[in-house]
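Fold sample X.
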Amino acid sequence: MIPDNEKLSNPQVTIAAIKKYGFSFQKKFGQNFLIDDHVINKIIKAADITKDDIVVEIGPGMGTLTQYLAESAGQVIAVEIDTKLLPILAETLAPYDNVTVINNDILKCDIEELVNEVKEKKGFDYKAVKVVANLPYYITTPIIMGLFEKHVPAESITVMVQKEVADRMNAAPGGKDYGALSLAVQYYSETYIAANVPPNCFIPRPGVGSAVIRLTKHDKAPVEVKDEALMFRLIHASFEQRRKTLKNGISNAGLPGITKEAVGEALISMGLDENIRGERLSLAEFAQLADILYDACE
C-alpha cells in the first residue's frame, strides 16, 4: 500500500509524475486526471467494491483511481488506450500485484475474455465483475451502450461523466433531460447519481461539471417487448426531431410498414393523445407502442 500523501490523488504527486515523464495531455483521448481523494472514495463506495470483486477500470490514466481500486478489490483490470501512459502506470502501480494493465481500446475489447484470463492466471474465484471509469466526455455514450448491448458480465457500471450526461441518464419522462439515452440506460439498469464533482477536482480542469453515476444492471429487463430492436428504433425516431409529435417523428424516420396513421391509432388505443411528443412516454409505454405496431405489421 502507498501512503495517502504519496498517492496520485495528491496534486503535487501528479504534477511531479507529469514533469518526470514529460507527459502531454491529448485532447483526442479527453484526458482529465482526478486529483481529489474525497471524490475517489465516493466512487469506491458507490461501486461497493470488495475483495471478492474483479474491477474493470476503463481509462486509468496515470493510475490515480487505480491505486485505490487495487486496495479495495480482489483484482483490477485497467484498460488504457494511450501508450504514453504505460511507463507511468508501470511505476505508479508497481506496489500492487493485483493489477493487470491492458493497452487497448475498450470498444475493441472482449471484457469477458479479459476477466476469464485474469481468473485463470491469478487463480482468483471472483463473486462479481464491476466496471469503474472516469470516462472521456466525447465517448461516454458509445462506451456505456457498448457495455450494455454486448451484455458484458458486469454487475454494475460506476462512472464519472459530464454532469449533463448523468442527468440525462437519470431523467424521468417529461423533463428537458429525458430522451433516448435515458430510456436506453434505464432499460438495462437502475440509475443512481452518487456525487456531483466540480472542475477543480481534475488536472487539467474541464470546462464543465461532472457527476458520478452508478448503473446497476437489471437481472431482467423492467419491460417485456416483442421486438427490442423495433422499440429502440421508435425511441430514436421520436427524439431525433424533439419538437415534432411522436407520430410525425416516427413517420419521418421511414420505418418499413409503419405509417403516421398507424402510430396515431396505436397511441389512441393506448389512451394517449395522438399528438403527444415522445418525451411524455415512459419506457413501458414505448414497449407497448412497439408491440402494437409489431402486431400491425405482421
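Fold sample Y, listed below.
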Amino acid sequence: MAKLTKKQKTWTIDSEKLHGVDEAIALVKANATSKFDETVEVALNLGVDPRHADQMVRGVVTLPKGTGKTVRVGVFAKGAKADEAREAGADVVGAEDLLEIVQGGKIEFDRCIATPDMMGLVGRLGKVLGPKGLMPNPKLGTVTMNVAQAVKDAKGGQIEYRVEKAGIIHSGIGKASFPAEDLRANFDALVDAIVKAKPSGAKGKYLKKVALSSTMGPGVKVDVAEVATA
C-alpha cells in the first residue's frame, strides 16, 4: 500500500460507505483544507457506451448558484454582432484576426461562441479547438445569432457536460467556500439535466455511481438511490 501523505491522514472519510447527498457535500467541504478555494466536483458513472452515437450524453445546464469561476468568453463575429458580443462582456472578439491568434497557439478563452456565418472560418480551427472541447456547436447554443445572450449564459453559470470514453461525466458544481445549500442546488440541477438527457440507446441502469470530491480532497461515494431512480 502507498504511504499516506500528511494531508490524507487528516481525512475523515470511509471511502467505501455510501452517503446521502447533503452528508457527502458536508464531508467534501470539511476535507477541502487547501490554502486555495477548491472546486467541488461530481463524477457520474453512466450505463452508456459513448462510442455509439445513440448513447452519447452531452449538453449544457445553468447552475443556479453559478460556478465560482471567472469564465473567459471568446466570440467569432463581425460587425454589429461583434459589437453586441463586446457589450455583453465577451473577453475576446474577432474574425480572421482571432483565427490567426488561435492558430498561433494563443487561446485566451474558456468558452467559444460563433455566429453561423463564421463557422466556415472556425472550422479551420477544429484541430486546435476540438481537443480542448471549445468547438462551437449549435446543439449547445454556442453557434447562434443571439451572441449577447450566449455570452451572458456562459458568464452566468452555464456549463457544458459531456460523457467520456469510460461512460463517466466529470463536472465542477461550485467552490468549497459555497454554502452547502448552494452546492446542493447546483448538484441537483446538473443531475436533473443529465437524467433528462438519457439517450435512446441506453440499456439497463442509467445512473450507476455518483461521487463527490474537491480538487485536493478525497472522493465521497453518494447513494445513487437518493439521487435518482434512473
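Sample Y note: The helical segments are 21-31, 79-87, 96-103, 119-122, 126-129, 147-155, 180-196, 224-227.
Also: The CA atoms of residues 173 and 186 lie 6 Å apart.
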